[in-house]
Amino acid sequence: MSEFTVGEADFLLDGRPVRLLSGALHYFRVHEEHWGHRLAMLRAMGLNCVETYVPWNLHEPRPGRFEDVQALGRFLDAARRAGLWAIVRPGPYICAEWENGGLPHWLTGELGTRARTRDERFLEHLERWFGVLLPRIVERQIDRGGPVILVQVENEYGSYGSDAAYLRRLADVLLDAGVTVPLVTSDGPEDHMLSSGCIPGVLATVNFGSHAREGFETLRRHRPEGPLMCMEFWCGWFDHWGGEHITRGADDAAAALREVLECGASVNLYMAHGGTSFAGWAGANRGGGALHEGPLEPDVTSYDYDAPIDEFGRPTEKFWRLREVLAEYADGPLPELPPAPARLGAPAEVRLDGWAPLGAVLEARGGPETSAPVPPTFEELDVDRGLVRYAVTVPGPRQPYPLTARGLRDLAVVYVDGERAGVLAEGDEQLKEPVAGHARVELWVESLGRVNYGPRSGEPKGITGGLLHERQYVHGVRARGLRLDALDDIGGVPFQPLAEDGAPGLYRGTVTVRGAGDARLELPGWTRGFAWVNGFNLGRYWSAGPQRSLYVPGPVLCEGDNEVWLLEFEEASAGGALLQAL
Question: Distance (Å, rounded) from C-alpha 284 to C-alpha 305?
Answer without folding.
Answer: 15
